[in-house]
Design a protein that fits this description.
The protein contains three helices and five strands, in the order αββαββαβ. The protein has a five-stranded antiparallel beta sheet, with helices on one face. 19% of the residues are buried. Helices cover 24% and strands 25% of the residues. The C terminus is likely disordered. The two termini are 27 Å apart. By secondary structure, the protein is of the alpha+beta class.
């Protein structure tokens, strides 16, 4: 889960750096709810981004297509005077047999190397789920 999340955040912050006006200030929010990580980047630019077809030799224009390909779902919504671009990824979980085996061995049941579910892309609002109070906010993650 780390690599797709890091790549997605990098792409969204690159979009803020390249396109956001009047300010490059943004807020990154990571929210873990049960079996899903939602990553959101809010900036102060009210213009909503569009997925575009990049040419074979283009050096830019693939960010949102990449987000769509690596995430379960993603979307954009107006937020005050700006916007929020978000995507979701599955949290990795172990098969029950592996969790039991690790617990019996006294090792963590953290899911490293588990396979994510098949992605289903939908540019709608992120699904609402009951929070586990595991919210992390990074404010002022502006790119200059």
């Amino acid at each position: 889960m780390i690599d797709p999340a890091a790549l997605g955040v990098t792409e969204l912050l690159a979009n803020v750096h390249q396109h956001a006006v009047p300010s490059k200030q943004c807020t990154v929010e990571l929210l873990v709810l049960l079996d899903q990580l939602t990553v959101s980047v809010r900036d102060l630019d009210p213009r909503l981004p569009r997925v575009r077809a990049a040419g074979a030799l283009d050096t830019e224009g693939r960010g949102l297509s990449l987000i769509a390909a690596l995430s379960e779902s993603w979307g954009v919504r107006p937020d005050g005077g700006g916007k929020v671009v978000w995507f979701t990824l599955p949290t990795l979980t172990l098969a029950p047999e592996e969790a039991v085996r690790r617990a019996a061995a006294g090792r963590s049941s953290c899911a490293r190397g588990a396979l994510p579910r098949e992605p289903a892309h939908s540019p709608a609002e992120p699904p609402l789920r009951a929070p586990l109070d595991t919210r992390t906010r990074v404010r002022g993650a502006g790119v200059v």
